[in-house]
Amino acid sequence: MAQYDAIVIGLGGMGSATAYRLARRGVKVLGLEQFDIPHDRGSSHGITRIIRLAYWEHPSYVPLLRRAYELWRELENITGERLLVITGSIDAGEENCDTVKGALLSAQIHNLPHTVLDAEALHARFPGYRLPQEMMAVYQPDGGFVLCERAIVAHATAAQALGAELHAREEVLSWEATGSGVQVRTSRARYTADRLVITAGPWAGNLMPGLAWLMVPERQVLIWVQPRQPEHFRLGAFPVFNMEAPEGRFYGLPVYGIPGAKFGKYHHRGETADPDQMDREIHPEDEAVLREGIRRYFPDADGPTMAMTTCLFTNTPDEHFIIDAHAEYPQVYLAAGFSGHGFKFASVVGEIIADMVLEGGSDLDISLFLLGRFTP
Ligand SMILES: Cc1cc2nc3c(=O)[nH]c(=O)nc-3n(C[C@H](O)[C@H](O)[C@H](O)COP(=O)(O)OP(=O)(O)OC[C@H]3O[C@@H](n4cnc5c(N)ncnc54)[C@H](O)[C@@H]3O)c2cc1C
Fold this sequence. Notes:
The chain is α+β, with helices and mostly antiparallel strands. 25% of the residues lie in helices and 30% in strands. It has helices at 13-24, 62-79, 98-109, 119-125, 148-161, 204-207, 284-297, 346-359; strands at 2-9, 29-32, 48-51, 84-86, 89-94, 115-118, 135-140, 144-147, 165-167, 172-178, 181-186, 190-198, 216-225, 240-245, 248-253, 261-265, 271-272, 305-315, 322-325, 332-336. Helix 1 (13-24) links the parallel strand 1 (2-9) and strand 2 (29-32). Helix 1 runs parallel beside helix 5 (148-161). It is globular, with a radius of gyration of 20 Å. The protein starts with a strand and ends in a 17-residue tail after the last helix. Bound molecules: flavin-adenine dinucleotide (FAD). Residues 9-15, 32-35, 42-44, 49-50, 171-172, 199-203, 207, 220, 222, 264, 311-313, 336, 338, 340-344 line the site of flavin-adenine dinucleotide (FAD).
């Protein structure tokens, strides 16, 4: 049976970064992926993922984001590939909503450059935005997007170059703790290792059934639309955005990679899903949910459909991540439950896990992500 220092289960956004960071620190690592590297059945496909610094969700994400930006740039330099595109970011909504208040709080606490714009000033500066008068926006110049599939390929290739062994199309069927190590059984073989990292995204609950209630997969749908006014939605003219509206929370990005601007709605139609059984067809109701937001707030984008796809969130009860060691088996680590906003952090999550595996902890404050917060 082949023996490794560490096995990483799942080579999506988080697992590919983890395999790379471990390999970089001299760890003999095996990464196991059930599908291809990359693939479009998990949480990390669709070309782009928003990155933003004035994090409305909680100010304590900001130091992690600063490090994530550094590590994305470092990975670009190592691989010679563009992975991070800066467009500026907009956090919008009514003055007292969580998004605006939270973005301003993070900007103030962490001294981030930002500008507050009313709906009219926002439209004057970025004409694609046509928000109602009662809404306002926090503009932050460092926002942008990460190229998600390319980032997975970059981390995986960089990991391989450092000796990591990565296997696609090899599903992990079970794992068990054996003394201070682990044994992993897959569709092809059995392996042993000193440490195990579970970065299985929407499937994490299958590998940790006791924690499945904390990591609930949810069906999402994305749309790319050809803008009626292309100049308002091109790179450089249209910052990425998050917007809290009466209909729900919309997000979007400029035209890139597909001939259309990209729009989505958090929690889409509120459909929890089994990732192996999820409905991956696109229905008229899916498009209607997204078109409602586009028509009302971005009418100049409301042209023909260019592409649509399904994707999966993995939601925790408080929508903060889970990054922690297993309560019973300290040689087993879990990074999951990224609740629809994790990809931008993948670079730093890989580093945090490598620090936990090798040094027993991270210098970054990850107290928001520990499992203990869910214990009554
Ligand atoms: C529509 C949509 C839009 C999003 N927008 C943003 C955004 O703009 N910005 C942002 O930061 N985040 C965003 N997110 C969230 C972000 O994409 C996710 O948080 C992130 O991709 C999660 O990565 P992951 O590694 O946990 O999961 P995944 O990338 O899905 O990786 C898990 C991997 O584990 C593999 N696996 C699972 N079980 C097994 C097994 N038993 N054996 C072997 N392999 C296994 C899977 O096949 C998969 O490849 C979005 C998500 C969606 C769905």
